[in-house]
Specification:
The complex is a heterodimer of chains A (388) and B (147). Chain A has 388 residues and is an alpha/beta fold. Chain A has 13 helices and 11 strands. Chain A has a single domain, classed as Thiolase/Chalcone synthase (Peroxisomal Thiolase, Chain A, domain 1). In chain A, strands 3-2-4-7-1-8-11-10-9 form a 9-stranded mixed sheet, with helices on both faces. A two-stranded antiparallel sheet of chain A has the order 5-6. In chain A, helix 1 crosses helix 3, helix 4 crosses helix 13 and helix 7 crosses helix 11. Chain B is mainly β and 147 residues long. Chain B folds into 2 domains: 59 residues, no CATH class; 86 residues, OB fold (Dihydrolipoamide Acetyltransferase, E2P). In chain B, the strands form 2 sheets. In chain B, strands 4-5-6-8-7 form a 5-stranded mixed β-barrel. In chain B, strands 2-1-3 form a 3-stranded antiparallel sheet. The chains are: A alpha/beta (388), B mainly beta (147). Chains A and B meet through helix 5, helix 6 and strand 5 of A and strand 4, strand 5 and strand 6 of B. Strand 5 of chain A pairs antiparallel with strand 4 of chain B. Chain B: This is ChsH2 C-terminal OB-fold domain-containing protein. Chain A: This is Thiolase. Chain A: One of its GO terms (molecular function) is acyltransferase activity, transferring groups other than amino-acyl groups. Chain A: Pfam families: Thiolase_C_1, Thiolase_N.
């Protein structure tokens, strides 16, 4: 086993790219990652690429070879699909490949184009991450599924729409200085409360936007980094993945996410840390309630206590445990197949000290990234640490 | 294609679902139950909880209890003319069901956790496709409207 280092990260701006193809977006992210890493693309031994709905959005299947071309690499290339956790699982396999000594340099990340579809077709496209027979045909949409979880949470543990509005307001504030974010505008708690409903109790500002974008990471072995004199100060020290029943109604509890519990337990064990060590987190806030559920699965808050974290200021930029300093999916945007890679890119920048919000975590040593698919039937957690 | 019932018209992957809906519409809604009592919905070859292949049909409870719900305002195209509509997850004994909650007449759907409901098969307003529908059990909700 070897240490896995994040040698470089690359992102496109998240948002609307109506006249650009997915291959161009991923190519931009990959080239930026190579430049950031100082690694020759000819050294890449594998490409792990995440994408969810490219067949619907761009009428393009079999995207991995296309993305290898776009990145200028010639190596085994594979597309990973796990709904909104597609890039998370792609990165996880890259980490495992490097850790096992099977490759010294792997390019991992993902891309999604969504804004070229009308909103109702995106709604339909995202819904297929749920159980078609017993959820989608029963009217469950993606926001609707998280709304079911939100009401179940309120019933079990308390909390209110206003608590969720604090999550939205916090993450919008965090996105303001982030040059890659889709919405760099503040949203007040009152504005979030007054927004129109999407699927009650979730309203417009409880939901992530529809986004185009790509992410890329150059992951290398510790030995490669040393041999090539790379500035790769951040290591991926833990990875974990969990799976739950596909349909929300089949879960043990409607307001918890055991797949993320399992992923977190495995990632912490892999890293040899516990939740108390975490200084900063990027979590999968596709909806505001999802951030709450993530905080509890990661062990950062007790069950039933995550709902108050943003309102009480614990997870704000100046709080004890800043969460989603990137702006999160909520305000930075959520190109679903790119998100898992983007979270690790943002966390790497935060830990390196070159993120516009790094000042809020100047002493941070340990970060955790939480990426979820569907209603968290899939979950991936990574632990990143400052290695030197 | 024959002009026989939906279960024969349906694509093979959907046949067991169509047959399950037929049973639900006939008042014979069921779950698949393993010897340990885990309930699940077809098609199944093994219990998803414990892996047992010894599955038999177990009747759903006559009424179920709403565990959570949402009123959906932004629908997918297949529900365009149905919105706003309420979805709910309801405990029916051997298993939970997810469906659309409807009250009588033009009443806006207003379920609550803990409401007791019955289950039936209804149609989507948008295109007439069949779907699982919950209705308030007599006297158990504020609407008081019987169907």
């Amino acid at each position: 086993m070897t240490d896995v280092r994040v040698a470089g990260v690359g992102l496109t701006r998240f948002g609307d790219h109506p006249e650009r193809t997915g291959r161009d977006l991923f190519g931009e992210a990959a080239l930026r990652a190579f430049e950031d890493a100082g690694v020759d693309s000819a050294d890449v031994e594998e490409l792990n690429y995440g994408n969810f709905m490219g067949a619907l959005a761009e009428h393009q299947g079999h995207q991995a070879p296309l993305m290898a071309e776009a990145a200028g690499v010639r190596c085994p290339a594979t597309r990973y699909e796990s709904a909104c956790a597609s890039a998370g699982v792609a990165v996880r396999e890259a980490v495992r490949t490097v850790a096992a000594g099977d490759a010294d340099v792997v390019l991992a990340g993902g891309m999604e184009r969504m804004t070229n579809l009308p909103t109702d077709e995106v709604t339909e496209g995202l819904a297929i991450a749920a159980d078609d027979l017993f959820e989608v045909r029963a009217g469950v949409t993606f926001p609707g599924a998280y709304a079911l979880m939100a009401n179940a949470y309120f019933d079990a543990y308390g909390g209110s729409r206003e608590d969720l509005a604090h999550v939205a307001s916090k993450n919008h504030a965090n996105a303001v200085p982030n040059e890659y974010a889709q919405y760099r505008t503040e949203v007040s708690v009152e504005e979030a409360m007054d927004a129109p409903p999407v699927a009650e109790p979730l309203h417009l500002y409880d939901a992530c936007p529809i986004t185009d974008g790509a992410s890329a990471l150059v992951l290398v072995s510790e030995e490669y980094a040393a041999d090539h004199d790379l500035d790769a100060s951040v290591a991926v020290t833990g990875t974990g993945q969990g799976t739950d029943r596909m349909a929300l109604g089949d879960r043990e509890h409607l307001a918890r996410t055991p797949a993320a519990d399992d992923a977190a337990d495995a990632a912490y064990a892999d890293a040899g840390i516990d939740a108390d060590a975490v200084d900063v987190a990027e979590v999968h806030d596709c909806f505001t309630i999802a951030e709450v559920l993530a905080l509890e699965s990661l062990g950062l808050f007790e069950t039933g206590e995550g709902i108050a974290a943003a309102r009480e200021g614990t997870t704000t930029a100046d709080g004890d445990l800043p969460v989603n300093l990137s702006g999160g999916l909520k305000a930075k945007g959520h190109p679903v197949g790119a998100t898992g890679g983007s979270q690790i890119a943002e966390l790497t920048r935060l830990l390196r000290g070159d993120h516009p919000n790094s000042e809020h975590v100047s002493d941070a040593e340990v970060g955790v990234a939480h990426n979820a698919g569907g209603t968290v039937a899939s979950a991936v957690v990574h632990v990143l640490e400052v290695a030197e | 294609m024959s002009d026989a019932d939906a279960s024969e018209d349906a694509a093979p992957t959907d046949r067991e679902y169509a047959e399950w809906l037929d049973a639900l519409a006939d008042g014979g809604g069921f779950a698949l139950v393993c010897p340990d009592g885990h309930g699940s919905l077809p098609p199944r070859r093994v219990c998803p909880e414990c892996g047992s292949a010894d599955l038999s049909r177990g009747a759903l409870d006559e009424t179920g209890v709403v565990e959570t719900y949402s009123v959906v305002h932004v629908p997918s195209p297949r529900f365009a003319d149905d919105a706003p509509y309420a979805t709910a997850v309801v405990d029916f004994g051997p298993t939970r069901l997810t469906g659309v909650y409807r009250e009588g007449g033009d009443a806006a759907p207003d379920p609550a956790v803990g409401d007791r409901v019955t289950v039936d098969v209804g149609e989507r307003a948008t295109d007439g496709e069949r779907l699982v529908v919950f209705r308030p059990a007599d006297g158990e909700t504020g609407s008081g409207i019987e169907r």
